[in-house]
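Appendix C. Worked example: VRR-NUC domain-containing protein
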Amino acid sequence: MRESAIEARLVREVERIGGLAPKWVSPGNNGVTDRLVILPNGVTVYVETKAPGEPLKPLQRKWAKELTKRGHRHYKIDSVEDIDRFIAEVSGG
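Step 2, the predicted output written as structure tokens:
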């Protein structure tokens, strides 16, 4: 499965639970996460999507560390199973 297919499915599943998952583009800030997941309960989560088994690049790891250090949730999603776990976790189910 390609990264684009995983990302498209993530967006659909987030929208299904009433959330939004816009693409995050931040000029001059290489390595920012692919998606901001904005949930109905006032929570925003950062998600990096990857092709199955593909690791985070060094700048992506740096962003993940910076976000989590500041108390934000960051997820790397690279499979349908990851999407299912993510949706269950953020939707309380």
